[in-house]
Amino acid sequence: MGMETLTLTWPAVPGAESRGRAIMEPSMKQGEEAAEEQAGELFWSLLAGQEKKLYNFLHRALNFSEDSADLYQEVVLRAWRYFPSFDRQRNFPAWLFAVAHNEVRRHFRRRRTELGTISLDRLANDPAAPAADPDAALVLDAAARLPLRQREVFFLFYCDRFSVAEIAAICGLSEGNVKFILNRGREAVRQALEARDEKR
């Protein structure tokens, strides 16, 4: 006598699938909200360590303009908006300053203005500038006269203490290009110091 194969089937229950989805959706939404809340907490905790550095970078990049505060807000909002796509394995400061770099470029494209110069008095009054050191003020004044790309790289390296590799990532440049721009900036500053010495 052969063994018969026993097949069990469950009767279909009308509406069971939709009821199951209705049960799962709130918990899924709660999970998404919790993840968003955690991401928000992480973003603000990471930003907290970069706020002053970021503002000073923007302040210098905009030639110590009063627009710096507004641009700072724009950078933070844009970074917040794109934070979900941020790769947590990456360097957060480098990513944040890349966002800032792009916003600076967008700012000057909107304004379509040439960068001006700043006086030593304004530099001396800036909290990021060492007012008591006239040589440092002269260096900053000379650096502030550089073209936008050179000035950004110069300040990222000397004031914000980013490495050449980090600046390359921030500005979308090769490391060789960053070094070249730094050398151009140093040369411009050196010439400004020599010109000052010749006038003495």
Helix count, DSSP H or I runs of 4 or more residues? 9
Question: Which secondary-structure class do the elements indicate?
Answer: mainly alpha
What count of structural domains? Answer: 1
Poorly predicted runs: 5-13, 16-20, 113-132
Q: Quote the average pLDDT.
A: 75
What would you note in describing this structure?
By secondary structure, this protein is mainly α. It has one domain: Butyryl-CoA Dehydrogenase, subunit A, domain 3 (Up-down Bundle), CATH 1.20.140. 70% of the residues lie in helices and 0% in strands. Helix 3 packs across helix 4 (92-111) and helix 7 (148-158) crosses helix 9. The protein starts with 15 loop residues before the first helix and ends with a helix. 23% of the residues are buried. Residues 5-13, 16-20 and 113-132 have low confidence and may be disordered.
Outline the fold blueprint.
Layout: H1 16-48, H2 51-61, H3 68-82, H4 92-111, H5 120-125, H6 134-144, H7 148-158, H8 164-171, H9 175-199
Helix pairs in contact: 2-3, 3-4, 4-8, 6-9, 7-9, 8-9
Short description:
The protein has helices at residues 16-48, 51-61, 68-82, 92-111, 120-125, 134-144, 148-158, 164-171, 175-199. It has one domain: Butyryl-CoA Dehydrogenase, subunit A, domain 3.
Which features does this protein show?
70% helix; 0% strand; Butyryl-CoA Dehydrogenase, subunit A, domain 3; mainly alpha; 9 helices
